[in-house]
Amino acid sequence: MTVQRYQIAAIQMTSGKQPDDNLRQAGALLAEARQKGAELAVLPENFAGYGVDYRVLGERHDELVGWLCEQASSLDMAIIGGSLPALQRPDRQPVPSPLVRTCSIAVNAAGECLARYDKLHLFDADVQDAQGRYRESDFFEPGQEVVTTTLGDLQVGMAICYDLRFPALAQRLVAAGAHLLVYPSAFTAVTGAAHWQLLLRATAVQTGCYVLGANQCGQHGPRRATYGHSMLVDPWGRVVDSLSDSPGALVAELDLATMNELRQSMPVQQHQRFRIEGPYDT
User: Fold this and answer.
1) Where are the transmembrane segments (predicted)?
2) Lowest mean per-residue pLDDT among 38-47, 253-262, 273-282
């Protein structure tokens, strides 16, 4: 019998430059989410290290993936590790220095790695905050593939932060069968206040999917602050539940019956007249 309801969690953190401190914070919040009944928890972008030397942290990639697997197995809960730096591409070819790939890892409740998604869209923007200039392309090499994964009966479309601004990716994920789109993020305080909820709700309405945003929050240094307000949005664009701007574990219910009813009453995907083939269509 197909499971219709899932308890899913967004882990909201204030990650800094000390990976071991970040892992302790993440572990405590994952345990809190499981205590609240979560079957799947999503960590934010850069959960293990924010504003660090990503090549150095990337040398611990296998160790950090192992940590995710141990957490999932011990808690009996699927986990999506928001993003980790990787020195190798998915085909094991090295990423040319000084760059890394930034990737999200999906692990099932048995502690088995199911999928890896490498961030497609890199945040190169000027923002009216203390940081001012953001250039992810100085540190990261973009990914190439659209990725979905199956956790039980739930099809999950994987994305990271800035990907939220690109509806073509969301359309590819729902075309691949996604019920839930996840956006582990580090949205800045300025862009988050302007667009975070707007983009999450619009993505849910346009795709007929549940959308979960797991964001960083608070002050990460003298010039860098993130918005928080992690939330789950249903396919009608309603905020099921949300956090404020402090660390925490949001646990909320996803109901596939509600999703299917909304998709039947307004079958937007059946009316789609544009075909989106891939990230580099010609």
Assistant:
1) none
2) 273-282
- The structure tokens listed for 85 are 């730096």
Q: Tokens 């197995």 identify what position? A: 73
Q: Report the run of H or E that residue 138 belongs to, with start and end.
A: none
The candidate with the shortest Cα–Cα distance to 47, out of 239, 254, 226, 229, is 226
pLDDT of 55 > 80? The answer is yes
Q: Which two tokens stand for residue 79?
A: 């986990």
In whole angstroms, what is the distance from residue 265 CA to residue 240 CA? 20
Q: Which of 69, 103, 141, 161 is catalytic?
A: 161
d(CA 142, CA 100): 9
Active-site choice (45, 69, 103, 217): 45
For residue 68, give the amino acid letter.
L
For the question of residue 161 being annotated catalytic, the response is yes
Sign of the alpha-carbon dihedral angle for 155, 237, 224, 119? positive
pLDDT by residue (tens digit) across 147-194?
999 988 899 999 999 999 999 999 999 999 999 999 999 999 999 999
Q: Which residues, other chains included, contact 207 with Cβ-Cβ below 8 Å and sequence gap of 6+?
A: 170, 171, 173, 174, 178, 181, 235, 268, 269
Please answer whether residues 60 and 69 qualify as being in contact, where contact means their C-beta atoms are separated by less than 8 angstroms.
Answer: no
Report d(CA 136, CA 124) in Å as an integer.
Answer: 6
Residue 266 token pair: 């307004």
The separation between the first and the last C-alpha atoms of the chain, rounded to the nearest angstrom, is 42
- Locus of tokens 């596939």: 256
